[in-house]
What does this fold into?
Amino acid sequence: MSIGNSPEDERPFEDDREEARRSVGHALRQARIAAGLTVDDVTNATRVRIAIVHAIEADDFAPCGGDVYARGHIRTLAKAVHLDPAPLLAQYDAAHGGRPAPTPAAPLFEAERIRPERRGPNWTAAMVAAIVAVVGFVGFTAFKGGDDGGAKPQVAEGSTPSTSKSASPTPKSSKSGNPKSNPSDSAIAAAPQDKVTVQVSAADGRSWISAKDHNGRLLFDGLLKQGDSKTFQDSEKINLVLGDAGAIQLYVNGKKIEDSFQPGAVERLTYTKGDPQVG
It folds into this structure.
């Protein structure tokens, strides 16, 4: 004789719990439907591609490109459909051998850091060289025009030096324009010189970001809405993971990082006190 609920009453409840526990994609899909959202709505809100959303909801994480990216997508999608991402990440880790160790990510951080260092300063050097050449030519023309005498035809040439004099303050205006183009430089410049300072701004949309210091301590992990910004500082280095690098604008040690990050691309970066390096 059985006491309490019969086995038939208990078995479906246990099966449902077991199914919910082992299916991360099923939980995300049910939460999306319950929230009245389509896959297109989720894609527009998170910038995670439609094909990846469909794959994750089918518990196929191969298109994510690795555990780190898969965890980032799960976190982003869970927040978009109003779910707590922590239990889903625990389910994913349990099914895929545990949370990935941070150590193997270091070479990838270094590889990503090399790209903006090498390319951006070269364009800056070329622009400076071009400005110097133009200013030198205008100055030489003005000096030569002043030595040709006082004939009236040469008065017209004298107008050229006057124009060049009005043009000579141009480099000064360009210098004064630099702080306007980098509005965050003044705030970052006040930081101690013996630290690395990184400012992350969601200029073109919203993006999930994660930031850690050189000891691997988590400084921030969450969704940065459009128009929001975060500033991180450490004595040695800052490690970043950008869920949608195309929406992010970076300032490192008072300098803007120029890079053509693609919308929806996940980027992992590391910056130190000497970044960005010139040359």
